[in-house]
Amino acid sequence: MSFLAGFSNIGKVPELRRRVIFTLAMLAVYRIGAFVTIPGVDRNVMRAVVNKSGGMLGFFNMFSGGALSNLSIFALGIMPYVSASIVLQLLTMVWKPLDELRKEGEQGTRKINQYTRYGTILLSSFQSFAIAMNIEGMSNSDVGGGAMGDVVLHTGWGFRILTMITLTTGTAFIMWVGEQITERGIGNGISLIIFAGIVTDIPGGVSTYFQTHKGSIQPLNLFAVASIVVVTVATIVFFERGQRRIPIYYARRTVGRRVYGGQTAHLPLKVNTAGTIPPIFASSLLMFPATLAGMHVPGMAQLQSSLERGDWLFNVFYILLIVFFCFFYTAVTFQSVDVADNLKKQQAFIPSIRQGKQTAEYIDKVMTRITLGGAFYVAAVCIVPTVISEYFKVPFRWGGTSIMIVVGVALDTVAQIEAHLITRNYEGLSGGGGRVTRIRGRRDIG
Predict the structure, then answer these.
(1) Following DSSP, what letter does each residue of 13-75 receive, concatenated?
(2) How would you list the strands of the sheet with 243-250, edge to edge?
(3) Lowest-pLDDT range, 159-168, 209-218, 403-412?
C-alpha cells in the first residue's frame, strides 16, 4: 500500500506530472510510428519472413519494437545512434582533440553530442541502403512459406533511394524523441525507447505461445519460464542496488566562532556503474555484420551465419563484448582523479589514504575490482537464462538481455521519480522519506 501511496504523490508535483505525461506522449508517438510502413513493400510478407527466420533478424526486430517486421519508418530503431555513440566514445579515449573537448564540460559535451548526431545520420543512410538491397530479394518462399509473394513490390533505384530517405528520417526522428524525453521528460530517453520496444512485444509473444500450444500447454514449461524470469529479475535488482561504500571523513575547521567538519559520510560506488549500456552496445556491434552482409561485402555473409544468435560462438563474443564495455563505459563516465580532487577541495579524506594521487589510485583500484564482478554479473544475466531455456527446451523468448534492459531502465526511471519527490519533501515511491548524505564524483558522459 505504501508503494501505491508513493505513486499518488506523482500527481502532487506539477513539474513531475508534466514530465511523466510528456514522456508517455512521446513514447506513444514512437509506438504509432512503428506501424507506418515505408512505401512500396508488403509488410505481411516481411512479417512472415521475420517470424519464420528468427535468429539475428528476430533479435533486431525485438530491439526495434516490431518495427522491422512491419517495415515501418522506424525499422532501424535507435541502434544507429547507439553505434555512433560507441564510435565517438572509443575515439574519445584514443584521439586527443576529442578527449580535450570532453574535458571542457557542458559545452564540450554538446559538441560531442552534435558529432554523434552526424554519425547517426551517416550510419542510418548506410544501414537503410543495406536493408533496401537485402529485402529486394526477399520472399516468403525463402523460408518455406510458399509463394506468398515478394516483400518489395517494385524494385530498383527509386525504391532504394526512397527507402534510404524514409528510414534515415525515421531514425533521426527517434533520436530527437529520445533527446526530448531526456531533457523535458523523466528518465533516459534512448533507454526508454528500447524499453518500450521490448515491453510492447511481450503481450504478443504470450498470446502467440498460447495460440500455438492450444490444448498442449505444459504446466512444467510455464513454471520453468516463470522461475527463470523471477530469478533473473531478483538477481538484477540485487546487483543494481549493490554498492561499495568507502568511508569519508571531513576535517574539522574553525571559521570565526563556529566549528565545521568532523562529520562522516560515504562515497558510494555501484557494482554495475555502466548499467544497461554494455548489453546494448554489444548487441549493436553483433548486428553490424548483418548490415554488411546486406551490402554484399565479401565474407560478411559467412560471419553473419557463424554469429547466429544462440550458437556458442555468438555467446563467447557476446560475453567478451559485455565485459569490455563494462570496463570501457565505467572508465569514460567515472573519473577517479576528479573524485579525488573534489574530496580534497571539500577537505575530506579516506582514512589511512593520503589526499590527491593516492586517493585517486585507491578509488580506481576499488572501482576496478567491483567492475570485474559487475561485468561477470551482466554477462551471466544476459547469457545464462537463454542457455538454460535452450538446453531444457523451455519456450523462453526474450532472454536475459531483454530482462536486464527492462528492469535496469525501470529502476533508473523510478530512481529519478523518487529524486523529484524527495526534493520537494514528498515520500518516495517506496514510502520512505529517509535521506542519506552522499558524495558523488563528477560524471562526464560523452
Answers:
(1) -HHHHHHHHHHHHHHHHHHHHTT-BPTTB-HHHHHHHHHHH-HHHHHHHHHTTTTTTTTBTTT
(2) 264-270, 243-250, 348-349
(3) 209-218
Structure confidence by residue, pLDDT tens digits, 142-168: 444 444 457 787 778 888 899 999 999
Indicate the SS3 state at residue 152.
Answer: strand
CATH of the domain at 248: 1.10.3370.10
Q: Within a 10 A sphere around the Cβ of 82, how many other Cβ atoms?
A: 22
Q: Are residues 304 and 364 in the same domain?
A: yes
Which of 190, 217, 244 finishes a domain? 217
Residue 69 lies in a domain: yes
Locate 84 and state its grid cell: 555512433
Cell numbers linked to 156: 530498383
Same domain, 374 and 400: yes
Q: How many domains does the chain have?
A: 2
User: Domain ends where: 158, 192, 217?
Assistant: 217
84-90, long-range: CB < 8 A, 24+ apart: 84/116, 84/117, 84/119, 84/120, 84/122, 84/123, 85/116, 86/281, 86/284, 86/285, 87/119, 88/112, 88/115, 88/116, 88/119, 88/446, 89/328, 89/329, 89/332, 89/446, 90/328
* 5 found inside a domain: no
In a domain, 370, yes or no: yes
Please name the residue that has the C-alpha cell 533473473.
232
Instruction: Count CB atoms within 10 A of the CB of residue 221.
Output: 17
Has residue 265 got a pLDDT over 80? yes
Q: Which domain holds residue 393?
A: 220-446
pTM of the model: 0.74
Query: Alpha helix (H) ranges present in 103-200?
Result: 106-135, 157-184, 189-199
Strand, helix or coil at 151? coil
